Amino acid sequence: MASIPNTSAMTTEASKGAVICVFCGSSAGTSPAHMAAARALAHAFHANGISLCYGGGTVGIMGEIAKTLVSLSGPSSVHGIIPEALIAFEQQSRETGIPANIDASLFGRTTVVKDMHSRKQMMAKCVTEGGPGSGFVALSGGYGTLEELMEVVTWNQLGIHGRGVVVFNVEGFWDGLLTWVRSAVNGGFVTEANKNIMVEAKTAEEVVEALKNYKVSEGRLKLNWTQN
To answer: Is the model's pLDDT at 93 over the cut of 70?
Structure first.
């Protein structure tokens, strides 16, 4: 596990805009509510001057939130970060119809990295260097979305970052995970002080407010991750 470089001084943080990293699926899901939630979140970002950092996909929920925000706030509001292997997969997909180069006028700026670890570290850095209200949000998705979400939750618990983590619970999609958290607390595997590292929101507006008002859990480990 690599530490997230802390290149932002606290004195200048307030002058920076919020950056929210959204983890979500590259599929649309079977319910239209998932794509509608992506569009609603993009509108909430636009209304609050928030920039998006995401996994760089151009299809499914990923593509929907990116292209919606670009249409509202312009290409500079979106930064997609995608491993080279995945961008090659998208180009080969018969379903995408996406040209060889991702169009910045549609999806914003794209950075291609070598692997998944580089992608996640860069996304985390975008958030930690953002202004107040920056954080991580999980929309609906599959294995990758869940893995990304739980990693930033764990990093929060370990003291690697202190940014908010929100699950946008569309049509009860994350109910099972939230039940598991309660079971883990009751079973003694997650402390009571850390049960709210991950916060639930049911609307796009609630997502933004939850990150603006996020309180760092008292049970976080106070570890030094800057040592070589």
So the answer is: no
Rounded to whole angstroms, the Cα distance separating 199 from 16 reads 24
DSSP three-state, residue 78 = strand
Q: What is the phi/psi pair of residue 4, to 5°? A: -90, 120
Alpha carbon distance 129, 124 (integer Å): 9
Is 101 buried (19+), middle (13-18) or exposed (0-12) by CB count in 10 A?
exposed
- The dihedral through the CA atoms of 122, 126, 127, 128 has a sign that is positive
Q: What's phi and psi for 70, nearest 5 deg?
A: -60, -40
Cα 158 vs. chain centroid, distance in angstroms? 18
Backbone angles phi, psi at 23, to 5 degrees: -95, 130
Q: How many CB atoms lie within 10 A of CB 222?
A: 6
d(CA 130, CA 14): 9
pTM: 0.89
Under DSSP, the state recorded for 14 is T
* Largest pairwise CA distance in the chain: 50
pLDDT of 66 above 50: yes
Task: Identify the pLDDT of residue 150.
Answer: 98
pLDDT digits 0-9 by tens, 42-54: 999 999 999 999 9
99 pLDDT tier (thresholds 50, 70, 90): very low
Report the C-alpha gap between 222 and 160 in whole angstroms: 9
- Please check whether residue 51 is in contact with residue 68, taking contact to mean a CB–CB distance below 8 angstroms: no
